[in-house]
Structures are given as structure tokens and as C-alpha cells.
Amino acid sequence: MSQFDVTVIGSGPGGYVAAIRCAQLGFKTAIIEKYPTMGGTCLNVGCIPSKALLDSSEHFENAKHNFANHGIIINDPVADINRMVARKNEVVDQTTKGIQFLMDKNKITVFEGVGSFESATQIKVTKNDGSTETIDSKYTIIATGSKPSTLPFITLDKERIITSTEALNLKEIPKHLIVIGGGVIGLELGSVYKRLGSEVTVVEFMDKIIPTMDGALSKELNKVLRKQGMKFNLSTGVQSVERNGDTVKVTAKDKKGEEVVFEGDYVLVAVGRKPYTDGLAVEKAGVDLDERGRVKTNEHLQTNVSNIYAIGDVVAGAMLAHKASEEGTLVAELIAGQKPHINYNLIPGVVYTWPEVAAVGKTEEQLKAEGVAIKVGNFPMRALGRSRASGDVDGFIKVIADEKTDEILGVHMIGARAADLIAEAVVAMEYRASAEDISRMSHAHPTYAEAMKEAALDATGKRAIHF
Ligand code: FAD
Ligand code: NAD
């Protein structure tokens, strides 16, 4: 029987990063992945393919609506969905092969098959051809991720009633895409198809889209996406979804309790994701799950069985690739006897619509609920020279600082390249910068990042220069 110091089950951004860090620390490491390609949800059916389609559809949108304003005339550009999906597949292929390369480079043994516990130290790998192999491992890291959730009354036929996985592989552009859930997936994939010409109707249960983010972001994103033609039905609870041939019908109740019916040709169910432990046989190792099916861990991501850890989407917390990766590194270092730390408050969140939405730290609503005295600075992107040059004038940056100490407690932004701009806020907050600190740092001109300095100036005492 092969023996390993550490075995990682699942090769997503949690698992493969954990495996690489374990190998770097000198552990004999194995990784088990049930699919033939490495990289998990993120690389195969999540972050990377969705961003590839977002980028392609954004080029199309620009060619169709924005190039003429820049003096570039292209008559009637055509969106070729098959080529877009093929390009997306090429991007996925290169990226997943890159992980295989990293496994080889770090001398990590890769097992292809379903990993299931036989005991707390033995894991059986069942390969696609049905053959099995059992390995012995001193430590195991569960990194089995998540799968799309659905609603109890919905039957996903994966053809017209679909999840994000199928929405990344459509063979035609929907005429009318009905999106259930105005969260990250609904708005990102809704944006892809809106840009490609679909009518897109979002049905959201809460009274706002991206409901967990700062209210100001939700309001602005709603405004901008409506301007782009997306339709929103908020405070609307879906009751049933039916398919009839090529037509789908979604019946819901609006906030007055009245029935509303939406008819389209595709329904994207984007109501969250659920932890995935099917086939893992955690009970044979004695590992406990919580009431939501997540692997239960302590603050060191250690399960109730001391040599078994769990990370990423399968444990509590934000379901984000970079959170999973931080946890992978943390667990590897803990096993090596180091004392790593993750500041969960400073895991940034990004929505890759255009304009992009990004945030770190606490929202204004959270800070108010906690009774923290705050000051808030805002700066609109349209006041920047850089925004006017590119034409990306929507959005703002909001900096929230402690009223007394001036320490930055939250940064919330919507605008061009916010996904990249948020890194400055993360660094600042990790070093416990004050709004004054940011306002005194030189920001290159003309850049979108100048809005960060201006919002900080606004927070420190309404000293913004350009607004
Ligand atoms: P996963 O990536 O889910 O990987 C788990 C792996 O374990 C899978 O490969 C699975 O096959 C394997 N596995 C499961 N059980 C077994 C078993 N018993 N044996 C062997 N292998 C097993 N996050 C971001 O931060 N940014 C984004 O832009 C972003 N975009 C997204 C877009 C979409 C459409 C979706 C669906 C998700 C997106 N996410 C994004 C979320 C991100 O993909 C997840 O948070 C991330 O993949 C979680 O990583 P993980 O390693 O915990 O699990
Ligand atoms: P989500 O939690 O972001 O959004 C789900 C939305 O569905 C919420 O707004 C919720 O109120 C709504 N909803 C729930 N039940 C409903 C119902 N019955 N009717 C109508 N609306 C309902 O989940 P998601 O968009 O499915 O994404 C899943 C996970 O994947 C998220 O946790 C997210 O972190 C991750 N993800 C991240 C990114 C990114 O980082 N850019 C992109 C995609 C996905």
C-alpha cells in the first residue's frame, strides 16, 4: 500500500494549493481528483470559464455599442456563441493543464478517481474503470468543494432548466433567459447573455440584488444593469418552474403576494451552492458534518478527527476560490507546526459584471448594526479624467473609517477594474491604515486608483479635490 504524509481529496483552488504548499514543506503528498482534469469548480466550471465568457461578451458589447463613440465603425458585429465557448474551453484546457504541470513539478502523486475514507488513515481511490487502490495517509485534507443548489420544487433538466455549469456551455444564445437569484452567478452569467442579445429577467427573493454586499453597491449595480437592459423582479419568490418543449415558465409571488409569470426559453437557477461530500464516506473516518452538510472544523480547520482537516467550499465561510487557497496554505503550514493566520474580514469579494463590483471589510449596514461610529467618504468614478478618457464613468468608491481612530474598516467600490483596485484596500487594511494614510499616498495620474485616494480624502474630512 502506498504511504503518504498528506493526502488531499479534491483538486480545486483549495486542494491543489494545499498540495503544493505541503510538497514545498517537504511532505510526501498525494492528491485525489475524481475528474480527469485538475482545478475543481473554479478552473473547469467556475471562475475561469465564466471570466472567459465575460471577457468575450464584453468585447462584443463594446464592438456593438461603444466602439463607434471612439471613432471605430464596425457594421453589425455578430456573436458566434460556438466560437466563444470553444475559446473558453481552450482557456480552461490550458489552465487545468497548468495545474497538472505544477503537480509534476512539485512531485505530488496524482490519483484519478473518487476518494473515500476507509478509516481515519486509509483512503480508497475508486477509478473510472471500477478498479480500486487504497492508500495510507498520516494526514488528510478534505477539499471536495461544492455543487450548485436548487429549490425543492425545481427539476433541473440541464437543457433548459440549468445551473451555471450548463450556462457556460450553451450552443445558442437564449432569446429570453430567466435567472432565479440576483447573486454573483446570476448577475455575471446574466451579463454574458444580456450582452450577447438575450432578454434577461432576474427574479430575486430578497429586496435587493447582491444582498450581502454594501447597500450602496447593490443600488448602483441595479441602476447600471437596468441601464444595460437587464430586468429585475425583487422581493419575488419563485413558486414553480415548468418546461413545455422549448419554453420554460416560472411562476412566482411578488411582494404584494400576487402571482407573476415569466416565460422564456432558458431558466438559470443561481440560488447558491451546497457543500459536496457525496461518496467521501466521512462516517468511516468518524468526521462530523454540520446541519448544513458542511464538514465541521475548529478555527484551525481541523475536524473532530485530529489528523483530518477540511478547507474551501466544503467548510463554513465564503465560497470563494481565494478563500479556499488561503485555507489550503494555512492547513499545510499548521501540519508543519507553523502558526499561520487568515484574516477572514479581509477576504475581498468581487462581482465581475461591468462595471465590476468589489469590496473588503465591513459594510456600512454591519458597522451601524454593531454601533461603531464611522465616517464615510465617497468619490464618483465620473469625476476622474481616466474614466472620461475610457468612457467608463459609472460607479464610485466608498471608504468607511472609524470616526475616532480614522482606521479604514471597509472599502466598497463599483467601477472599471474594481476587481483589481480592491487589492490596494486589502493591503491598506491588512496594515491597519487610516483614511489619512491613503489620502497622503501618491496615486499615479490618470488612473482609476485615484478614486481611492479621493474617497479617502472625502472620509478624512470632505477634502476630495476633484468633486
Ligand atoms: P472545488 O473547486 O469545488 O473543487 C473540489 C474538487 O473536489 C472538485 O474537482 C471535485 O471533483 C473534487 N472531488 C469532490 N469529491 C471528491 C472525491 N470524493 N474524490 C475525489 N475528488 C473529489 N470564486 C472566486 O473567488 N472568484 C470567481 O470569480 C468565481 N467565479 C465562479 C463562477 C462560477 C460559475 C462558479 C460556479 C463558482 C465561482 N467561484 C468563484 C467560486 C469558486 O469556484 C469556489 O469557491 C472554489 O472553486 C472552491 O474551491 P474548493 O477547492 O473548495 O472546491
Ligand atoms: P449567491 O449566494 O451569491 O446568490 C444567490 C441569490 O439567490 C441570493 O441573492 C439569494 O437571495 C437568491 N435566492 C435564494 N433563494 C431564492 C429563491 N427561492 N428565489 C429567488 N432568489 C433566491 O449564490 P450564487 O450566485 O449561486 O453563487 C454561489 C457561490 O459561488 C457564491 O457563494 C459565490 O461566492 C460563488 N461565486 C463567486 C463568484 C465571484 O467571486 N465573482 C462568482 C460566481 C460564484
Automatic annotation (TrEMBL):
Keyword field contains Flavoprotein: yes
Catalytic activity, as annotated: N(6)-[(R)-dihydrolipoyl]-L-lysyl-[protein] + NAD(+) = N(6)-[(R)-lipoyl]-L-lysyl-[protein] + NADH + H(+)
Assigned keywords, A-Z: Disulfide bond, FAD, Flavoprotein, NAD, Nucleotide-binding, Oxidoreductase, Redox-active center
Cofactor comment: Binds 1 FAD per subunit.
InterPro entries linked: Class-I_Pyr_Nuc-Dis_Oxidored, FAD/NAD-bd_sf, FAD/NAD-binding_dom, FAD/NAD-linked_Rdtase_dimer_sf, Lipoamide_DH, Pyr_nuc-diS_OxRdtase, Pyr_nucl-diS_OxRdtase_dimer, Pyr_OxRdtase_I_AS
Record's keyword annotation contains Cell membrane: no
Required cofactor(s): FAD
Active site: 445
Enzyme superclass (EC): oxidoreductase
SUPFAM superfamilies in the cross-refs: FAD/NAD(P)-binding domain, FAD/NAD-linked reductases, dimerisation (C-terminal) domain
Binding site for NAD(+): 181-188, 204, 272
PROSITE patterns: PYRIDINE_REDOX_1 (PS00076)
Organism superkingdom: Bacteria
Disulfide-bond pairs as recorded: 42-47
Biological processes, Gene Ontology terms: 2-oxoglutarate metabolic process
GO MF, one example: flavin adenine dinucleotide binding
Gene3D superfamilies according to UniProt: 3.30.390.30, FAD/NAD(P)-binding domain
A single Gene Ontology CC term: cytoplasm
Annotated FAD binding sites: 51, 115, 144-146, 313, 319-322
Family: Belongs to the class-I pyridine nucleotide-disulfide oxidoreductase family.
The protein, known as: Dihydrolipoyl dehydrogenase
